[in-house]
Amino acid sequence: HVRSRRQRQMCIRDSVALGAPPVDWLCSFLLARPVRLALLGYWLALAAAGTALISAVRTRMPLILVRKLYHALAVLLFLPAMLVELQLMRLAFAVAIALLLALEYVRVARAPPLARPLSAFLRRYTDARDAGPLITTHIYLLLGCALPVLATPSAAPSIGQTAQPAVVLPPMAGILALGVGDSMASYVGVRFGRTRWPGTAKTVEGTAAAVGAIVVGAGALCAASAAVAPARGDRGDDASAALGVLGATIATCVLEAVTDQIDNLFLPLHYFCALRVALGAPVYGGVEARMSRPGE
Q: What is the pTM for the complete model shown?
């Protein structure tokens, strides 16, 4: 199985090196594994159903919670693919970011026929941060989920190849920080928050809920990786890894509560770096060199 997968990777790499047309390369890439086409269908169906559902309930709850529903939708969209097909996720993130930037250009340029309905749809979910001519929050959300994945070396093992938290968790930093932590912080802060952080409207209760939700989510991901690959690689010191995850999570959630930066963009990068430092993430240069050798 490993050799056949490497052969497919070499075939795709060779097609790029030989200057194959992009459409041919894309078809070869998508058809190399049946799960990739299944994920494309899953994304289209869930994105359509999720957007329709959020539009239906948006008048029944505060705007900040409606916006966080899109964070939850991002978890449902991206997490399955990140668990089983990280290479496809890299390509999909790149295409989606380019598409959103193109649509924003069309909207700002008021180019018919898409500009008016697109602007009307996006303005339903804007707040003071999108008061200018550009609406960028949704682009930052996608970038925040994508950057930890794109920053992960391409030779890093997938969740089916290792159970090491230092390998499994850093690519998930955007999903955990935004889709899980930020959403939970907003919900608990709005519904139950009483104690404010100094100089901000965010609450200590919301931050504590974010820490708990992220730690539980990280534990679930590690448990899933251990179940899929229980005998591959050294899991290391579980207690030390747990303390590292807890420390990185607390630092990121407190930063979210007190920073004035664009949290959708800044927090995933901070959490990604904090996890790699706290867990001692490995370097894959040697692996990349071995995979690039002819005949492997």
A: 0.84
